[in-house]
Amino acid sequence: MQYMIELDNISKRILRELEGDGRVSNAELATRVGLSASACLRRVQELERSGIIVGYRAVLNHKKLGIGCIAYVGVGLSDHTKHSQEAFEQAITRSDEVRECHNITGSYEYLLRVETTDLIAYKKFHTDVLGVLPQVHAITTFVVMDSAKDDR
Known about the structure:
The protein is an alpha+beta fold. The chain has 2 domains: 59 residues, Arc Repressor Mutant, subunit A, CATH 1.10.10.10; 75 residues, Lrp/AsnC effector binding domain/regulation of amino acid metabolism (RAM) domain (Alpha-Beta Plaits, 2-Layer Sandwich), CATH 3.30.70. The chain has 5 helices and 4 strands; from the N terminus they run αααβαββαβ. A hairpin with a 6-residue loop joins strand 2 and strand 3. It is elongated, with a radius of gyration of 20 Å.
């Protein structure tokens, strides 16, 4: 059984700092949170060991990588069985365009974050990937025009 781990204010500050800059040096992180470098390192290592910090990643410039179309896609399934969900999830994880896939509540079973080079490439994904899956009953696309905030 998973349980929530209680954190003190210093550990919470460490996490906020690392979320903002995962490449910050331990010495700088220690200064920012008011600890010695050795105490800060021990805390970060404990946060990693406990599974609170599960990894570090790079934030990419999508435009420089040729990603010109980002869309959030609501997907409704034709039936709500475990088998149908598993088949959809297996198919969708093979698609490079799908960057996130969330099983959600509400009008749709899934919310996808899809990245393509442009709207034409998105249409091809819509038709050739989502459109051929037998589990898919409904597709609603929300194309991102701009992002005022994106902390991923």
